[in-house]
Amino acid sequence: MNEEFILALDELEKEKNIDKDVILDALEKALVKSYQKNYDNAENVDVIVDKETGDIEVFALREVVESTEDNINEISLKEAKDIDKALEVGDIARIKIAPKNFGRVAAGTARNIVIQKIRDAQRDSVYGEYLDRENEMITGTIQREDKYNVYINLDKIEGIVPVKEQVPTEKYIPNERMKFLIKDVKNSSKEPQIVLSRSSENLVTRLFELEVPEITDGTIEIYSIAREAGSRTKIAVFSNDDGIDAVGACIGYKGARVNSIVEELQNEKIDIINYDKDITVFISNALSPADIIDVLINEKNKQSLVVVNDYQLSLAIGKEGQNARLAARLTGWKIDIKSKEDFDNMSQAEIDGILGLNEMEEEETMTEEKLNKEELSKDEETIEDASEELADEEVEDVISDTLSHMYDEDETMSTKIDVDDNSFKEVYSDESDLVPNREEDKPEEGGN
Question: What is the pLDDT of residue 13?
């Protein structure tokens, strides 16, 4: 090793963005293995590479003991004192050794290990660089395409666009430059895998940030975005400055800004609408370009019923329901669209059904019944528990006390029955009725 080697490492550090210390550390470890392998030596050694000159020093590491039993890994205190007077028993003595031809042998053995470490360091460097750029936009050159992936040259590394991140209507022509979103960064044993996307909604967001300075500086903000890649995108924006029209700024002079984005997305349609805190206005804007007559909402369930003129119905719904579908995703609300004629013929119950108001009433009724049942059940459990806790005598006492209390409170109730004397005499005047079988009343034998 020499200064030329160190200069080469400096160049490598600049070109490949690899820390020189990482390479030197890998080299030192490789030289330790080379020494032990080529010199069939089992002792512990330490290799130091001078960062300035490239000179290599090899040290044998031995434990200082009073009396040696292992001549390879131990050294006596007396011998250790000859090397360094400060050494004591238990310390590690570093003994400088200079094996013959070590430089040539070490260089040959360490070469592959150092190359591998350089690759690992480069891989980690690239991984760290792109990991920090996740969800950013990047420009790359299309290299090739197979059945599953499109491969993109990103200068330092190759990225891939898997099928699910591709746009079916787009064509990926080799050597053509295109913008992508860094969707994910995965580390692997060979090199980092950079997953790119052309179908992500965030790609449209990044394109608007690139083309509209007012979005970058925060004057205009993107509230939400809904996209069906390759076909149509709806984006809701609002301005933090009353003097700036958010939609106009995004469109640009004569449509220059939005046209640039449309061109990058290979003629994908883009609807830019104003976000409004009033949800009825926001839903109306989201269904643009259709004109809305009325919007009925159920704020609790986020359900809405939109009324449009008969001739606007197909426009509001869109081809295969696309306009309504994107508007629902943009606002986060369920949207049902009816023509004016259909709406006028609907009953209030039907309207409530669409808005989910009937469901709310049923839920409230069920909840109330459930609460009542639970309350009644608790009362019954309380009575049952109280009865179980009372002994039989205690129950009788309670009943007796309760009856006494009832009689005391109600003067009309008594434990005695009052009967008139005349009535008593009248009832019992005929004693025969009371004692029909007296002896004197029996007929004589033989008599009639």
Answer: 76
First-to-last CA distance in the chain? 161
Q: pLDDT, tens digit, for every residue of 337-372? A: 999 999 999 999 999 999 988 765 555 555 566 666
Q: Flag whether pLDDT at 252 surpasses 90.
A: yes
11: alpha, beta or left, given left = phi > 0 and alpha = psi -120 to 50? alpha
| In contact, 92 and 121? CB cutoff 8 Å | no
Question: Tokens standing for 439?
Answer: 């002896």
DSSP 169: T
Write down the H helix ranges in 199-306.
Answer: 201-211, 213-216, 246-251, 256-264, 279-286
Can you spell out the DSSP letters for 3-67? HHHHHHHHHHHHHH---HHHHHHHHHHHHHHHHHHHTT--SEEEEEE-TTT--EEEEEEEEEESS
How far apart, in whole angstroms, are the C-alpha atoms of residue 137 and residue 197? 9
């009825």: which residue's tokens? Answer: 280
Q: Model confidence over 89-98: pLDDT tens digits?
A: 888 888 887 7
333, 283 Cβ separation under 8 angstroms: yes
